[in-house]
Amino acid sequence: MQEVKSLIHRFLYSHLNEDGGFKDRSGNSDLYYTVFALECLHALQGDIPKEQTTKYLLGFREVEKLDFVHLSCLVRAAAAVGIQDKIDGKRILECMAEYKAQDGGYNVTKEQQHGSAYANFLLLGAYQDLDIGMPDAIKNAIVYNLRSLEATDGGYANMPNMPQGNVTASAAAIAILYAWQIPLGNHLAMWLMNHCIDGGFCNNLTFPVPDLLSTATALHSLSYLKANIEPIVEPGLDFVDSLWTNSGGFYGNWTDDILDCEYTFYGLLALGHLSL
């Protein structure tokens, strides 16, 4: 196990650029991939390049130029290196508020009619990382939005009135409702388990091909639901192992040919739940 941890640690550091950011799939520093790299290092209890990454993060002074996802990533990365008090959290939340949809939820694109589970999840994470209480009005609007995102089949989608939910949107919704101690439907565990194919989880049943993102988020959700995953542990470990490379990274799915910090994080998350 120590050898594996060392391989992953070296892989992550091979993706650290001189400016303190971590590489995206093109090799450029990106806040999104930096978050996943830092989360991996925390999980491995590895050394965090705090000085380098702090310099990189504090370089984002004009936060209004960042999109919704990267605003949330700046907050998450800052929290990961312990400098959330050095960024303008209030201004970041003001910028994220510009992505409020007409139904009161939040979307990763401005001026949308409906919020999405993913954007709502990112907003909640930003409030939590900044240690700022989310106003009740925003919280209630998000809950209302999530109710509208319940699909006909019992899962959650990122759009209202959908016949099928998908795993990643459902995972985001479950995480929010769990954080707010709102009762979760008893059917959700079975709904998620129905998306398990050959040990991995697919995002939707229309395209039943398992991937690491869906697998990790499904397993994480099943832990919230206190579901019994014993029947899928061995095939699950085999699936995750099939995406592992001895360079220390994980592929996102069987057709992927690029390693990155994001899917390496999801590999570790999946293994963590399967190994409990």
From TrEMBL:
Question: What Gene3D superfamilies does this protein map onto?
Answer: 1.50.10.20
Q: Give one Pfam family.
A: Prenyltrans
Supply the InterPro entries for this chain: Prenyltrans (IPR001330), Terpenoid_cyclase/PrenylTrfase (IPR008930)
In terms of SUPFAM superfamilies, this protein maps to: Terpenoid cyclases/Protein prenyltransferases
Q: Which CDD domains match?
A: ISOPREN_C2_like
Q: Which UniProt keywords apply?
A: Repeat
Q: Which domain of life is it from?
A: Bacteria
Q: Does the keyword Repeat apply?
A: yes
This entry's Gene Ontology molecular function terms read: catalytic activity
Instruction: Report the residue ranges that make up the Prenyltransferase alpha-alpha toroid domain in this protein.
Output: 9-47, 191-263
Q: What is this protein called?
A: Beta-hydroxylase
Please report the organism this UniProt entry assigns to the protein.
Answer: Uabimicrobium amorphum
